[in-house]
Design a protein that fits this description.
The complex is a heterotrimer of chains A (331), B (338) and C (274). Chain A contains 14 helices and 2 strands; from the N terminus they run H-H-H-H-E-E-H-H-H-H-H-H-H-H-H-H. A two-stranded antiparallel sheet of chain A has the order 1-2. The longest helix of chain A is centred in the middle third of the chain and has 39 residues. Chain B is of the alpha/beta class and 338 residues long. Chain B is built from 11 helices and 12 strands. Chain C is an all-alpha fold and 274 residues long. Chain C has a single domain, classed as MetI-like fold (Orthogonal Bundle), CATH 1.10.3720. Chain C starts with a helix and ends in a 6-residue tail after the last helix. The chains are: A mainly alpha (331), B alpha/beta (338), C mainly alpha (274).
């Protein structure tokens, strides 16, 4: 019975996700047509393309046909994974983006994990002392985090730790002078990861700490904490087995629902550190006027965000049995 | 009550204050209470009378930073637990005294299965290998199907949740169960079922019970003795049948009027007139004096000592209407009875 | 006492932020009359570290950084205010209509708003600006298009709450027509939280514009803080002042609008905890 509830829940969430993805595709289609200039330009980009390619694209996307036919052809092309060809990178757009996305995830996921644990630990430390200096500090910190231009934070970190103190590398994902393999290679990547990851982490902590503080405070004041104490559990056990799991639910939700925000942060940080992920691809494609790549990045990140939303709902449902039975999304 | 049995809980003249932004609140103002092994005792009072604070003080569950016991003693099975720190309390809760609370939904962890919540008590107090089996036994003891171990609190009805909460407490194998308004959140039929279950459990397990309630009817059906608490002070106590037969304190009398559903012309229940006491003021006299229909000048000045009304059965009252002990000369000058 | 202190200190932060914003507005208005060199003026004094001649140093073309920061106020505030105003107006109209009439219209509007809130807005803005070419009007339009759902959601909720209150029924009984009720009774009563949200959108818009400029998505002839950081990026090794100062300007300005928005929200809603 529970399994079928979960399946129904998943189905309900997919019923939400599919129209949203469709809407995103239509937004992308509209961008090509609404921006000033020839749509063919938006589909090819400014990089020199072989002669005849423009005509081929014009035909494939039916640009001489009515708008609705165009939309149909556009969706059909996307369904086939046809996101265009990047002449600047001499590679199909889809493969290019997926390949670069890995590097973005290498930067983003550890930062997210770190920020989530840091945020929760900070909140656990602050919550029992609501109103104290430390607690106010946490609130101020999250306000500062929301106001920091993340790319500037990246620049500050480079100036401080790479240039002035010579502690860490400023750019890239690996040392260019030596060719490393195996563990030394991994360590080298980690070494390069520290600064950009730190920048992204500070940015994320701002989101996590604010919510975590509120949810830990809330969980601590719940009645079941009293029951747990009354049966003789130690404070440690009450905190870890009763307070924390209940406080984690909103935190997980916020992290998941802000996947797009997190991704944007990572992309902007990459441009400062020349990290070879999506952000770097994005900024070089702006420079090259490689429009299909830019649209592809938007399309795939938007879809990733929708998937992250659905995944968050599933995680939420697995953490909170009350959601499974109602099938409602926690707004 | 068998007078030969030793006391499981003694509360002696406990004073407890809460610090709040608006100043100190004297929640307990010299409350005393004794429960013997196997005995069912009721603690009756309106909301704000300090009855829940008293119940929580028994297990050191009042907020650590904002509450403080100023004076008095709490003895659990003869052991003084008045001054335990929160860390020391960890080893003392659950056994020999366990507790169940008022609202069975909010007092159960919403994301933990019922069985796990019971198992936590078992693992803490009677570590054993057959925990799952024991969980099933406890569920059956509170007359729930053992399959409910896998359920979450929100999947149960109010009455089932209260039974589950009871199982969590019973898993501690307590000699005294403190039940804080255990039936208030339930409908009348379910209330009766839970009370019957409590009676049955006490008989089978030989466990003492402190039942905290605002409802005299519940006390009548479940308790051998009762204490009436008002503004953090115990005003009257005695065997249930004696107090019911001849309530002595004007406040108790008022409670009985309210409970017997004496309705006024508009069909509303009779209530005791006046405002509940302001606990911020240091009360010198009887806290009920401002609302008491029989108040005298002494009542405002100081609190009387206990007057034993019924030798042997320990029905006693603290009220200036009754002769003070060792005060026979002046007693004749006062009106006795009501 | 503690609470009073906290309320006072949050109030103080709000007042400080308001004073700073006022100062920025004055600087922006006085842009043509600002003393000091023209920030577009190329000179021989390239890459000068901060000194008395150039308090915040000069860039690779010998342009004065302080001058650039002062002139950059105009772009940031223009984008911030214009985008927030547009987003607020669009949001109020759409949200109020959806909330007041409900039904299929409400459903449609809220689904559209949801899509806008789900997509990564910065990336969408950057793609649109990259394809359509930079320009302040375009940037403002794009930001407004992305930000209106925040206001619309809020407005919708407020309107749904207010339209159920008794006094609205009373007015309706007087025979006042529905659109008039909406405009004269419901919307004015819902504006307080919208004002707070609008102020927070100013902060977001300034941050977004800075990020777009940082990626090179702004006209080269505009003096903007993000653009200064963009050139600063190439000279992190030899001219830290090209990054540190313009970034500080962005940070303080965004912080000020965030504080102001929070303070407005708290001041207009006494129930909310500071």
């Amino acid at each position: 019975m529970r399994r079928s509830l979960l399946a129904r829940f998943l189905l309900a969430r997919l019923g939400w996700a599919i129209p949203v993805i469709l809407a995103i595709l239509i937004v992308n289609f509209l961008i090509i047509h609404i921006v000033p200039g020839d749509p063919i330009q938006a589909l090819i980009g400014d990089f020199p393309a072989p002669p005849g390619y423009a005509d081929q694209i014009r035909h494939e996307f039916g640009l001489d046909q009515p708008v609705l036919t165009q939309l149909g052809l556009y969706l059909l092309n996307l369904a086939k994974g046809q996101l265009g060809f990047s002449f600047a990178n001499r590679q199909p757009v889809l493969g290019l983006i997926l390949q670069r996305a890995q590097f973005t995830l290498i930067l983003m996921l550890p930062a997210l994990a770190l920020a989530a644990s840091l945020g929760i630990v900070m909140a656990l430390a602050a919550a029992p002392r609501a109103g104290s200096l430390y607690d106010s500090g946490l609130t101020a910190l999250s306000l500062v985090g929301f106001s920091l231009p993340i790319f500037w934070l990246g620049q500050l970190l480079v100036i401080m730790f790479a240039i002035k103190l010579h502690l860490l590398p400023a750019q890239g994902m690996f040392s260019l002078r030596t060719r490393l393999t195996g563990w030394p290679y991994v360590l080298d990547v980690l070494w390069h990861l520290i600064l950009p990851m730190f920048a992204v982490t500070i940015y994320y902590v701002a989101i996590v700490a604010r919510v975590a503080r509120a949810s830990v405070l809330d969980a601590l004041s719940q009645d079941f904490v009293l029951t747990a104490k009354a049966k003789g559990l130690s404070r440690r056990r009450v905190l870890w087995r009763h307070v924390l799991p209940n406080a984690l639910i909103p935190v997980v939700t916020v992290i998941g629902y802000n996947f797009g925000y997190s991704l944007t942060g990572a992309i902007l940080v990459e441009t400062v550190f020349a990290w070879p992920g999506l952000g770097n691809l994005f900024i070089t494609s702006i420079g090259n006027r490689d429009y299909p790549v830019l649209q592809g990045i938007f399309l795939l990140t938007a879809i990733a965000v929708v998937i992250a939303n659905v995944a968050t709902d599933l995680v939420y449902a697995s953490l909170d049995p009350r959601v499974r039975s109602t099938g409602l999304r926690h707004a | 009550m068998s007078p030969t049995k030793p006391p499981i809980l003694q509360i002696e003249d406990v004073r407890l204050t809460f610090r709040t932004r608006e100043g100190a609140i004297r929640a307990l103002n010299g409350a005393s209470l004794t429960i013997h092994e196997g005995e069912a005792v009721g603690l009756v009072g309106e909301s704000g009378s300090g009855k829940s604070t008293l119940a929580r003080a028994v297990l050191g569950l009042n907020p650590e930073r904002s509450s403080r016991i100023e004076a008095g003693r709490i003895l659990m099975a003869g052991r003084d637990v008045t001054w335990l720190s929160q860390g020391e309390w960890e080893g003392e809760r659950g056994h020999p005294v366990a507790m169940v609370f008022q609202d069975p939904l909010s007092f159960l962890n919403p994301i933990m299965r019922i069985g796990r919540q019971i198992a936590e008590s078992i693992e803490r107090h009677t570590p054993q290998r057959r925990v799952a089996e024991r969980v099933g036994e406890l569920l059956e003891l509170v007359k729930l199907p053992s399959s409910l171990a896998r359920a979450y609190p929100h999947e149960l009805s109010g009455g089932m949740r209260q039974r589950a909460l009871l199982a969590v407490a019973l898993a501690c194998e307590p000699r005294l169960l403190v039940a804080d308004e255990p039936t208030t959140a339930l409908d009348v039929t379910t209330q009766a079922e839970i009370l019957a279950l409590l009676r049955d459990l006490r008989e089978r397990l030989g466990m003492a019970m402190l039942l905290i309630t605002h409802d005299l009817g519940i006390v009548a059906s479940a308790c051998e003795r009762l204490y009436v608490i008002y503004a953090g002070r115990v005003l009257e106590w005695g065997r249930t049948q004696n107090v019911f037969a001849a309530p002595a304190h004007p406040y108790t009398v008022g409670l009985f009027h309210a409970a017997r559903a004496d309705r006024d012309a508009k069909g509303r229940f009779a209530t005791i007139g006046g405002e509940p006491p302001d606990l911020g003021e240091p009360a010198q006299g009887c806290p009920f004096a401002p609302r008491c229909p029989k108040a005298m000048t002494e009542c405002v000045r100081s609190m009387p000592d206990a007057t034993v009304l019924d030798q042997g059965e320990s029905h006693a009252v603290r009220c200036w209407l009754y002769p003070q002990p060792g005060d026979a000369a002046s007693a004749s000058g006062r009106v006795v009875g009501g | 006492m503690h609470r009073t202190w906290r309320r006072f200190s949050s109030y103080r932060a709000g007042v400080l932020a308001a004073a700073y914003v006022l100062l920025l507005v004055l600087v922006a208005l006085a842009t043509p009359f600002l003393p000091g060199p023209d920030p577009r003026q190329i000179s021989n004094e390239v890459m000068q570290a901060p000194s008395f001649a150039h308090l915040l140093g000069t860039d690779e073309l010998g342009r004065d950084v302080l001058s650039g920061i002062l002139h950059g106020v105009e772009v940031s505030l223009t984008v911030g205010f214009a985008a927030a105003l547009a987003a607020t107006v669009i949001g109020v109209v759409i949200g109020a209509t959806a909330g007041y009439y409900g039904g299929a219209l409400d459903l449609l509007v809220m689904r559209i708003a949801e899509v806008f809130q789900v997509v990564p807005s910065f990336i969408l803005a950057a793609v649109i600006v990259a394809l359509s070419g930079p320009g302040l009007t375009r940037v403002v339009t794009v930001i407004a298009l992305l930000a209106w759902p925040q206001v619309a959601r809020l407005m919708r909720g407020e309107v749904m709450r207010i339209k159920g209150l008794e006094f609205v029924d009373a007015v309706r009984c007087l025979g006042v027509r529905e659109p008039v009720i909406l405009a004269t009774e419901v919307i004015p009563n819902a504006l307080a939280p919208v004002l707070a949200a609008g102020t927070l959108i100013v902060a977001q818009a300034i941050l977004l514009e800075a990020a777009l400029s940082f990626l090179g998505l702004s006209s080269a002839d505009l003096v903007s803080w993000g653009r200064m950081l963009n050139s600063g990026q190439r000279f992190l090794y030899n001219a830290w002042w090209l990054s540190v100062f313009p970034g500080t300007a962005i940070f303080l300005t965004v912080l000020a609008f965030n504080l102001l928005g929070d303070a407005i929200g708290a001041a207009l809603n006494p129930r909310a905890e500071a």
